[in-house]
TrEMBL record:
InterPro entries: CHIT_BIND_RR_consensus (IPR031311), Cuticle_Struct_Prot (IPR050468), Insect_cuticle (IPR000618). This is Larval cuticle protein 1. GO terms for cellular component: chitin-based extracellular matrix. Pfam families: Chitin_bind_4 (PF00379).
Length: 122
């Protein structure tokens, strides 16, 4: 009897819980979102690209290119320039798209939910 009880407890604790509401003490199993499209490519010289889409409408695409830049001491340095975008449906049911790039100047993102700096007054 103890072995059966322990087996049941072990099986119950192995079920993934992804929706936890601690304020009411409820836990529910939520089926993982399925990927409906996935593509990727990697070149030996460094360039890459990938994209995917999930059944709930999330999409992402990204590509990277190798670029040579000069560092602070004017020495050549190889960096990967990344460009991409992702989209999802926000809580109001609106599709939100964020575009981004990253290069030797840092990471830069643009989209409706990304804060922007107000122009300075002169």
């Amino acid at each position: 009897m103890i072995a059966v009880t322990l087996a049941l407890v072990a099986a119950a604790s192995a079920v993934p819980v992804t929706d936890v509401k601690p304020e009411v003490g409820l836990r529910a199993y939520v089926e993982p979102v399925k990927t409906i499209r996935s593509e990727s490519s990697q070149q030996p010289e460094g360039p890459y690209s990938f994209s995917f889409e999930t059944e709930n409408g999330i999409t992402r695409e990204e590509n990277g290119q190798v670029k040579e830049v000069l560092d602070e001491e004017n020495k050549p340095q190889t960096v990967v320039v990344v460009r991409g975008a992702y989209s999802y449906t926000d809580n109001d049911g609106k599709i939100e798209t964020i575009n981004y790039y990253a290069d030797e100047t840092g990471f830069h993102a643009e989209g409706p939910s990304i804060p922007t700096v107000a122009p300075s007054r002169r």
